[in-house]
Amino acid sequence: MYRRGFTLIELLVVIAIIAILAAILFPVFARAKEAGKKTMDASNMRQIAIAINLYAIDNDGGMPSSMHSSGGNAQRAWVYNLLSYTGKVDEIRVSPADPNGPRRTRLGGTSYVINGYLSDLTDNLDPIEIVPGMTRSLDNLPRPTDTMLFWLVAFSKNPSVYDDHVHSYYWFQTTNPELRWRRIIQEIQPGAFFRTQSDPTQGSANYVYADTHVKSLPAKQIRAWALQGFDFAKPPED
Description:
Blueprint: H1 8-58, H2 83-86, H3 89-92, H4 101-107, E1 112-115, H5 116-119, E2 148-152, E3 165-166, H6 177-185, E4 204-209, E5 214-218, H7 219-228
Parallel strand pairs: 1-3
Antiparallel strand pairs: 1-2, 2-4, 4-5
C-alpha cells in the first residue's frame, strides 16, 4: 500500500510552528529559572539575618564585624562569624544570581555586603570618621523593620574576601543626585533579577531588614531614593 510522505511545504510549516513555540516558551522558562534564583536568594538572606540576630543576642546586640585586620578574620568574610548560629554558612553565603559566585565560594567570600552603618563602628575608628546614624548594636535600632542589614554585592565588584561590606554612609555625602546613584550601583546590585544588561534601572533585588524580613524592591525605587536624597541605608530615627 502506497503511503504519501510529507511534502517540503508541510515540513517547513512544522519547523515554523516549532520555532514559534520555542520563541514563546524559552522566555517563560528563563523567567521561571530567574524567579527560582530570586527565591533562593531571599531564603539565603533571611537565614543569614536570623543568624545575625542570634549572634547579637550573645554579643550585647553587636553585629558581626566586617573589619579585616591581620588577625584570624583577615581571610574570611564576616558571615563566618555566624557559623555557630547557622551551621551551613557555605551553603548560603553566595547568591545564585552572583556571576562571580564560584570565585567567591573558592576564596571564602560572600555575595552579601553588610551595611557599614551597622558594622563599621569600632573602638579603633577615628572620631572624625564617625557618621550620624552609626550604631554598634541592633538593640539600639528604633525601627528594625525599616533598617536594612545587608545587600547583594554589585556584580562588577572584585570577588575578593575583603569586599564583603560597603561604606554605605558615603553614598549620600554629596549633593549630586547622579553621583549618589553611581556610588550605590558601584557597590550593590539593585537590578540583580530580571535585569537588562544596558539599563541598571531595570530589574529588582531582595532587601533584608533587621527584623529578618525580606522585601523585593525595583531598581527604579532605589534610583528614585538616590535622586531624592533619601538615605535608605541609614537606620531611621524614632
